[in-house]
User: Fold this.
Amino acid sequence: MLNTKGHQLEQSLKIKNLLDEAVKEAQAIGEQIDGIRAPDEKLASTAKTVMDDIGAVRGRPLFFPFVGTGVGRGAYVELIDGSVKLDLINGIGIHVLGHSHPRVMSASLRGALSDIVMQGNLEPNREYHLISKKLVDLASRNSRLKYVWLSTCGTMANENALKACRQKKTPARMVIAMNAAFAGRSTMMAEITDNPNFKVGLPEYNEVLRVPWFDKTDPNSSAKSLSVFKEHVAKHGQNIACFTFEPMQGEGGYNVAPREFFLPILEFCREHKIPVWADEVQTFTRTGNFFAFETLGIGDFIDVCTIAKTAQNGATFYTEEFNPKPGLISGTFSGSTVSLAAGLEILNILDKENYMGPGGKIAMIHKEFVSMLEDLNSTTCKGLLQDAGGLGLMVAVTPMDGTKDKVDRLMHTLYKNGLICFGCGKGPYKLRFLLPAILTSADINVAKGIIEKSIKEIS
Ligand SMILES: Cc1ncc(COP(=O)(O)O)c(C=O)c1O
Assistant:
């Protein structure tokens, strides 16, 4: 593109300086954020009006009284009531490099200077090419995945994955999924999701078969799940379109299973030519590798894989054999130029700056955060923070008796005291943290103080 005006835009020193200046100024403003702050009484009534108005226009109040001002710093975020909170949920896992990261901001500004806001599959710009290439490079390192198709969210990436599997196995319609699965909010993804609260009033389509998730208390857990799997195959045979699973369950309760649990099922799928689709919408970039299938060493079994969240965009990967015929998957939007540019920058930072692997920053944050929860559980919050664990930047803990009521109360008390996290699971209910990869030891210490104070307040 050397002789193009696009190259001129990219190389313009004047634009570079202006962008650098804008980021510098935004950073200087953000640097005034120096830790947790209580709401400002003078802002309370305007903030409440905005929040009530959001509730009024969308027909449902906000879960937390959260509306951001657009300024944050690392793990901290400022809200319109003047408060500053430690954000350990990050929009349910989007802001993997925290708030107001200078390089993410800079890449976003670059994206905003493009001639178009939204990119599509018919007329893509450069960002579409660059992020697709990066994603294929990452996915193909430890799997047979070869192609990627962009979409705007995890649910749509999943719909594309399912269509690719069904087309490959046409006319098969049944899907084998795990107990406690979560797959998104479309009609079919709600059907794959194993939580009745997320599909109240929807009809049953009877296209999903269930297999039990790993039970760490049962030494025969893997054999039992395989046996149920085989029963489904014996009954439905060629009518099975695919097996889908989250390598670590997200909404279902931050449930971790070892490689040995998955292997027999995956080998059975290979033997019987049942397509394997890994839903990595929540696990992508979080488990200490880009893909949890790498963490588990099962990449070779994966035919189709989906991601979203930290990529700032949805994407479906597939192998050579699962490349769908033209016409099956497309759509107007493939992502905003800002999302594609920022997503690429995030992936490059995570790839090049020692975040991944056993000695990487993600593994260190996991260790320190889980140790902090365990320390509280054995000292000042004795027995009130059980089973801290998870993988990488996905950490959960069962507080008190694990009932919904107690977990909800604790979550809102933590929020009031300055820490944002969320729930997952349904018996036991857990507190879940989607930690940013820039979390520091000092931030973890702040979290410790707030968790301790909040537990004491409600128990
Ligand atoms: C495992 C999994 N699949 C799919 C989705 C749906 O993604 P989205 O909300 O981007 O549509 C989610 C969202 O939380 C998820 O965790």
In short: The chain has two domains: 22-101+358-458, 111-352. DSSP finds 15 helices and 17 strands in the chain. The mean pLDDT is 97.
